[in-house]
Fold:
Amino acid sequence: APHGAGRLAIVKRVPVGPVAAISPFNFPLNLTTHKIAPAVAAGNPIVLKPATRTPLSAITLADILIRAGLPAPAVSVLPMARTTGDRLVTDERFKLLTFTGSSTVGWGMKARAGKKRVVLELGGNAGVIVDDTADIGFAAARVAAGGFGFAGQSCISVQRVYVHDRVFDDFTSALVKLVDGLKVGDPLDPATDVGPMIEEREAERIDTWVREAVARGARALTGGKRLGGALYAPTVLTDVPADARVCAEEVFAPVVIVARFSSFESALEEVNRSTYGLQAGVFTASLERSLQAFDTIEAGGVLVNDVPTWRIDHMPYGGVKDSGLGREGPKYTIEEMTEPRLLVINRRTV
Structure:
């Protein structure tokens, strides 16, 4: 356009400034790395509060980085109480807060963060659709892996599974058989499939939620009980009221709910009937239904013919609604941790 003639515009990204980071217990090395590495790459110093129950991986990572030559002021890993950590949230010297954890805590932090930028990777209650064209055996195997790995203690663990009427019985039979074959026990034993909850009180919590659902008409197809200490039996529930806590909230435990649907559109509605929106899975042989799900499901990611639990580190990762704000994944986190700066040169000086 004539108005822009003779002008050259250049955009570069510059570091946003000091980063405050708070990481969770469940993947203490991977999720710590997802905060430290992009901050270093973007040129930002970072202060990280590791999870109180799993701090050693983050401390070791920082030590390795410093011994490898990273300037010591670039990374600080500081175990601290939650009350002390709250000062990271409110301190105006930090220009960005990145938090991974529960939705309640994360949105509360955002409300107290002041003017700093905030990136939140929060909870979910991931939904899966299994339609009548799906490979039922494959879908059941993937749901068993995605629902019970890490004892369900992942924000993208399979929680709600909606299965077409025509294949419901075959799917649930296959799933229950697989779940019954899972070995529960010591996570240091290579033969173990499902380990303990992070604390005994978490096993108590999920036992309460399951009992509440059963009291309201839900049925346990397998599991539904504690196994001692922090161990909870891998559980498959059906006929669960939609507003039961085990369905409506983030279960974060080895519990999967299965429900029927008669139309694909109604299944999409059920997946979206949640305050969360992190990732979802759809098992189907239909390209049209795959694209319909991609257009309709309110989530940060939709995985076709796989469970929402699947993730590789460089993909954009994050959610909508109560599941968070912004995206992780190295490229996307670097964008969050930098600001675009514009230079315009007027080459016409006469």
The two ends are 19 Å apart (CA to CA).
